[in-house]
Amino acid sequence: MSVTATARITAVADGRGSTALPVLESDGPLALRRTRSPDTGYARVTVVGAMSAPLGGDRLAVEVRAEDGARVTVDAAAATVALPGAGPDAGPASYAVRLSAGEGAELRWLPEQLVSARGSELDMTTRADLAPTARLVLREEQVLGRHGEPTGRLSTRLTVRRAGRPLLDQQLAYGPGAPGGWDGAAVLGGHRAVGQLLLVDPAFDRGLPAPRLLGPTAALTPLAGPAVLVTALAADARLLRAVLDEALEGLLKESKALRKP
């Protein structure tokens, strides 16, 4: 039997330099846990999978709101594994992530990898709506198939709007039924881990980082707005994370330097 569930998080500035979590609603397989943040002034929420999901036919969603001045990190305890449904008529699963950040807010969306297991079908959408002075750190990683198996069908779409205007809108598809060439030399070239890192920061209004390669299979691209996108391929999840972590560390240093008076 398929599952429909929506987990909700609301973060608000408490007026004392910290962030409170007045809304922390778990649902179905999406269990939310308040965890200790290593960063002063930030709230942290960890998504814990309470059961195997998403399965074919499941409809899952996570909604995160960072109100004006709030600072919140949302991460996960383990990778999410998309699995086939219980029967041939289960249909594809869907997983919707909806993020919003108000004036002066910072939202960090840092889940673990999404693994597309053989025979699974998943449509994933991530939508972020940002105020003009909001900051967003977003990381997405997909692993195409578990060890030694082919990938399932996976489609992803990332849409970001800032101050009501489009900043980024991209869609990707992999696996059986995806447009031809997705695994060719000009796209994945046989790699099985693919990811992206998006940093939106008003500090980049003072100057965007220059486009550049970050090794043989990763690139940094400035966007038409105060944001940069890093896209990367790797042979496995560990190597992919190393590339994205190094890129994020460098970009945070650049944005911090731009914020200095």
TrEMBL record:
Its main location: cytoplasm. It comes from the Bacteria. InterPro entries: UreD (IPR002669). It is found in: Cytoplasm. The keyword Chaperone applies. It holds the Pfam family UreD. Keywords: Chaperone, Cytoplasm, Nickel insertion. UreD, UreF and UreG form a complex that acts as a GTP-hydrolysis-dependent molecular chaperone, activating the urease apoprotein by helping to assemble the nickel containing metallocenter of UreC. The UreE protein probably delivers the nickel. Required for maturation of urease via the functional incorporation of the urease nickel metallocenter. HAMAP family: UreD. Belongs to the UreD family. This is Urease accessory protein UreD. The lineage of its organism: Bacteria, Bacillati, Actinomycetota, Actinomycetes, Kitasatosporales. The gene is ureD.
